[in-house]
Amino acid sequence: MSKSVSLKVQLSSLPNNPGVYQFYDADGKILYVGKAKNLKKRVSSYFNKKQEYGKTRVLVKKIHSIKHIVVPTESDALLLENNLIKKLLPRYNVLLKDDKSYPWICIKNERFPRVFSTRKLIKDGSEYFGPYTSMKTVRTLLDLIKSLYPLRTCNYDLSEEKIEAGKYKVCLDYHLGNCLGPCEGFQTEKEYHDQIEDIRQIIKGNLKNSIQTFKQQMNGFAEEMEFEKAQRVKDKIDVLENYQAKSTVVNPKINNVDVFTIISDETYGYVNFLQISHGAIIRSHTLEIKKKLDETDEELLQLGITEIRQRFNSTSKEIYLPFPVTVDGDLKVTLPKLGDKRRILDLSERNARFYRQDRLKQIKITDPDRHTKRIMSQMKSDLRLSEEPRHIECFDNSNIQGSNPVAACVVFKDGKPSKKDYRHFNIKTVEGPDDFASMEEVVFRRYKRLLNEEEPLPQLIVIDGGKGQLSSALKSLELLGLRGKIAIVGIAKRLEEIYFPDDPVPLYLDKRSESLKIIQQLRNEAHRFGITHHRNKRSKGAISSELVNIEGIGEKTAQQLLKSFKSVKRIKEASLENLTAAVGESKAKKIYRTFHK
Fold first, then answer.
1. What share of the chain is helix, strand, coil (3-state, %, to 5)?
2. What distance in Å separates the CA atoms of residue 564 and residue 559, rounded to the nearest whole number?
3. Residue 130 has pLDDT above 60, yes or no
4. What angle do CA 141, 146, 147 make, to 5 degrees?
């Protein structure tokens, strides 16, 4: 049976239920795992339409067989898809980067429980809180707990029989006040477990119970005139309140909520997760997801929510999102627009953005090729180009009140200045300050020369100016037969509009876009390079004219003097003998008399 017939039969037998589908190639290797509300419609869509993206077209060509699993709901499909991706690692699915083992806080299943950090989960009935994304957070919490509650650190079996038999003796921690000596029966099991309950609440982010308990203790000691003990308890209240002030960044009424946002570029998505408990952020984590098939932000966020909630064992019943996505049916989804809820969503997005910036900085240092490829890919997408603009040239005119008109061409290769390829142009065919005609001249001269010398042409030309300058440059490309062969855009200074040929409506790129930054850098570099040349030309002209104004001194003599003395100032200070040696006695006397009247 041919591949097409085989697939046709497989497609016709798919159900209209929610589920997960798997694509395999001719060798039986897994290519892709996906979820669907309606399996038949979703899988058929791969074959019924022309795919917009190249990677998806390649995937469809490789599909040889399809398997599917039907599940009761769409949220079940989401969970199953996530598990299968992690287990099977299909080539065309997004890559969830995370190979770390995270720290947990353990309350040990013992008669007098110990509280400590661990990276191993042992199923012995102990309680584990976490995982935490930072060991620093764990240490801070444990230091807080240790400063508030005297807990045992020994690993003795403190059974009732052994304590009554007097098997253990108190250690140094007891004498230092860090433990109340349950090993000798100095602390009851109830007292100890009351402490553990308060600790449990602190770890969950609820400090209210502990603060209330300590306030009652403090007032009790104060009434008994035990002011030193009351002061020690007050110190503990201060520690708790200080910790609460540092960790509370949202409205205390916001309780047990997960917040998710996403920032993405051409190749990666970054999903940030904030966990909020009793008005405090108790966890923040950003998941980096590598795109494989031009997945949308909705698809990546949906995958990120499922993965993160599984990984961190989240039991929150409400989530805040920037836009709607399909999630577990039991979850309440809120899309905040104003107030404290919106602010916490903005905070999450800022975390994702900072994480992305940090990753990009690291990549720029450790993997410059990947950094360049990402920027080139972004520019191709933003500027609607047919290929990556590895070679870009930018033109700028410089003239002040029509004097000494010049133009500059700067060249960027792989997003970086290639200064050896920069070129200056003196305007030859245009009289007066005519920017349009000047642009037409320099673009024609530049590419006529490149064609004659069979040099490589750029993939993108940037013209510093709006529609007028762009039209002038287009005329030259048309004369040379290059129109349509090289992409060309104009950038207007006022609002940084990007103009395209034959399109009256400009493109406005995001002000933080890397594509816009590269174009602005090109424009500024062209302006700097052009202005420098213009100033040099203008100053040389001014110097020459001061000497030429002397009767009997022409352009040639002026140049000869400048070559000998390097500046007009030195010519003015030169002796008659030195001037005579440079240009002869007759001219030397005229120059000397002019500057020594």
1. 50, 20, 30
2. 9
3. yes
4. 100
